Amino acid sequence: MKEGAMSADTHYHLLVPIYSSSFNTCFYCGCIATAHDHAPPVKYVEFYLATRQAAEFLKIPSCHECHEHLTPCKAATLEERRVFAKDKLAKKYAKALTIYEMWTDAELTELDFSLRHSIAAGLKLGAETTERLGYVGFDYEAAGLQQKVQDQTPLCFDVFGEQFSTFREALEFASKAYRIPKNTLKDFVADNDNSFELAIKAIHKAVTARDFAKELKKRCADFSKQHKQAVIFVHKQVERYLSENEDMTIQEALDKLYHTRVKHHSSASS
Asked: Nearest 5°: phi and psi at 139?
């Protein structure tokens, strides 16, 4: 360590695990600690000393990867740096996390060797990353004071009354139970306040709307051909009738169109 860094380092309190089981452990992710992170970063120590901005002046055991990820982070508190490190891990291993959420070991047997090998590697990395992201740190002592790390409230994912402790388990269950592809379901969950119930209802609504639009298009085309009317005219008139009366069916709208706009013109033409 350079002389300037050594001088600055004297302002920091080493974060020491209270229990031996956490010795040499990265506070951020639970891997083996090989370095020390600083809150605030050493190069900003003079700024925080001069301005008296909120800073904890902690020297934190960290693994090489978390230490590298935190290099650009200017945050001066342990919690801010923990959140930053977790976010970096999640982004770096996003592909592996997706594979872990989308695949199960049982599904690997259906794949050819090369794809099976690739997915298996992603599953393993995704499982490891999920464990690192879920790590909450350890109880520690710094500057003579002990600090207990608060256990996070266990996650709970609800799928119409069925409770799951992980998103992966909930996704697997909901996908099979409601016959919705995992990718589609995951996207809808993200767009519906992370709620499986809202997502499934939204998907069913979208499917109903798609089927209705398909039926509407076909029925209007058939009507146009039968009565020699322009398709776009028929479609727009039927849509207008349906928008004016939500209880009206497509057939009722077509009947109304026939009696009010088509029948008389057809009779006059003949």
From this structure: -65, 140
What pTM did the predictor assign?
A: 0.73
For the cut 50, the answer to whether the pLDDT of residue 78 exceeds it is: yes
Give me the pLDDT at residue 240, please.
94
- Cα–Cα distance for residue pair 219/197, rounded to 1 Å: 33
- Half-sphere exposure for 240 (CA within 13 Å, toward CB): 8
CA angle in degrees (0–180, nearest 5) for 117-123-128: 130
Residue with tokens 């190069």: 43
